[in-house]
Amino acid sequence: MQNAKGHGEKVLISVLFGTFTVSLNNSALNLAVAELMMTFNASASQVSWVVTLFMITMGMTMPLTGYLAGKFGRKRIYMFGLMGFLAGSGLGALAQSLSGIILARGIQGIAAGLMMPLSLSLIFSAYPAHQRGRASGIWGAAVMIAPAIGPTVGGLLLELSHWRMLFLMNMPFALLGLLCAYRYLEAEPPVKPRRFDTVGFLLITLGLGTVLLSLSRVETLTDLLHIQIIAPLMMGVLALLSFIYVERRHPTPLLDLSLFTHQGFRISVVLACLQSVILFGCILLVPLWMQNAMGFSPLTTGVVFLATALAAAACSPVAGQLIDRYPPQWCMSIGLVITVASLVGLGTLTAATPVWVIGAWMGMRGIGLGCAYLPATTVGMKDLPESSVAQASAMNNMSRRLSASVGIVALSVYYDMAVNTALSQGATYIEASASSLHYAFFALAGIAALCLPLAWQLGRVIQTPPSVRTI
User: Fold this and answer.
1) What CA–CA distance (Å, rounded) separates 215 from 408?
2) Entry's PANTHER family (predicted)?
3) Which one of 89, 168, 297, 346 counts the least CB within 10 Å of its CB?
4) Among 250, 267, 78, 266, which residue's Cα sits nearest to residue 174?
5) How far apart are CA 329 and CA 309, in angstroms?
């Protein structure tokens, strides 16, 4: 729908506060693992729940977003999520035990699961179709930059103050977000309530929870042989398959899987999943090379990742404008070509490679990310009915998280096996790590190359009138 001049910008700012708060907090808290271990005399596996529970509860809550937004309105659910995140931050800051912190993170994850899928839906509703690329590009810049500066902010707060400040720092942003959301987000008229899909909710909650939990505990190939991992993993996969079966036959499904009959949305989800594997694959592989093999400090590694985030944040708004004005396949394809080149460059790293060269390749990777990653999602949802965007965003997010988890496990297992094989043949650790990472980066470059025809097809589909598209 059309909005009064300037209203769209106010909605965008309101959503940006919430998005920025969630992304900043999650990346900043990763640095507190070592301090929490010392403070509460806990093991690494115990403290890892501070990160793991957030991701699991967020993934498990996302499927509810569409139903709740339809019943109570997007504004109410978004604000409820933001209030929940604020409450979780307060509980975390006041926690007297590790269990209290983990509980607070679980609440934050539930809140984030309500907020994040609604972000694009609220932005789309505030802008006409020909301006949504630019708006989502600005939103994407915040999504990129917050995780990049999070470790820096977290490191400074830990150096100058206390781990509790990592929770307290969220509160000003969350309060501003609440104030802006109350003032600028439009309340929606009530809709006819539909019957809640209890069976579907139980199946997808069980499926996502057990799969994400099981994958988060896999570090080596032998882990997949342990009954305590493989049993819940198989149970989760079976629950997800059962969920698909039930939803396709339910009169009021929790998630409308018929959205996948929209060719553009279907292709965009596949693109998002493949690019998520690349994104999180780099997050896994680059620190392995820089810190484990070459002995660089976490700060140096963080600066290299900052190059990626800054480049992506700078390119994302520009890419958003380009996909509004021109056939979107050109922007996405250019981004993917740059991605392939940067991954091939990272695959050629040696012990003699200067840090600035690694930073240059990572910056180039950021350009590709900004031009191809979020634009694919935006383009894929452009033609969907506005009432379906929240569900589509939730399904896109869940698909990306599952594919990224599988990709990380596959890369971790490959790296562990390849390094051990090379070491057994007499190679040094640096040589073993380098040879293993070469092939891993080349494999990611191959995935990016496979995305090229999909991006081109997505652009062509979006430009084709709906009446003549094929399913």
Assistant:
1) 9
2) MAJOR FACILITATOR SUPERFAMILY MULTIDRUG TRANSPORTER MFSC
3) 297
4) 78
5) 23
Cβ atoms within 10 Å of 124's Cβ, excluding its own: 23
CA–CA gap between residue 39 and residue 442 (Å, rounded) = 41
Token reading at 213: 């939990």
Q: Higher confidence at residue 95 or residue 283? A: 95
Instruction: State the Cα–Cα distance between residues 162 and 153, nearest whole angstrom.
Output: 12
3-state secondary structure of 325: helix
- CA proximity to 63, closest of 378, 391, 303, 459: 391
DSSP state at residue 189: P
The yes-or-no verdict on residue 79 having pLDDT over 80 is yes
451: Cβ contacts below 8 Å, ≥ 6 apart: 271, 274, 275, 336, 372
> Which of helix, strand or coil describes residue 353?
coil
For 227-271, the pLDDT digits (tens) are 888 999 999 999 999 999 999 888 888 888 888 888 889 999 999
- Residue written as token pair 């070509």: 337
Helix axes 227-247, 198-216, angle to 10 degrees: 150
- Flag the least confident range among 80-94, 99-113, 258-272, 408-422: 408-422
Closest CA to 393 of 12, 65, 11: 65
The two structure tokens encoding residue 277: 């594997």
- Other CB atoms within a 10 A radius of the CB of residue 248 amount to 10
Tell me if 168 sits within 8 A of 24, measured CB to CB. no
Instruction: Judge contact between 388 and 69, C-beta under 8 A.
Output: no
Cβ–Cβ < 8 Å for 410, 281: no
The torsion angles phi and psi of 256, rounded to 5 degrees, stand at -80, 90
**For residues 86-108, average pLDDT:** 93
**Chain position carrying tokens 């509460």:** 40
Average pLDDT of the residues in 164-183: 90
C-alpha span between 428 and 90 (Å, rounded): 48
Look up residue 428 and give its two tokens: 């040094």
Contact residues for 155 (Cβ-Cβ < 8 A; gap 6+): 31, 299, 302
| Long-range CB contacts for residues 342-346, cutoff 8 Å, separation at least 24 | 342/367, 342/368, 343/278, 343/282, 343/441, 343/442, 343/444, 343/445, 343/448, 344/441, 344/442, 344/445, 346/282, 346/285, 346/286, 346/441
- pLDDT, tens digit, for every residue of 114-139? 998 898 889 888 888 778 888 888 88
User: Interior CA angle at 452 toward 367 and 307, to 5°?
Assistant: 15
Residue 17 CB contacts under 8 Å (≥ 6 apart), including other chains: 173, 174, 176, 177, 180, 181
CA distance 55 to 397: 12
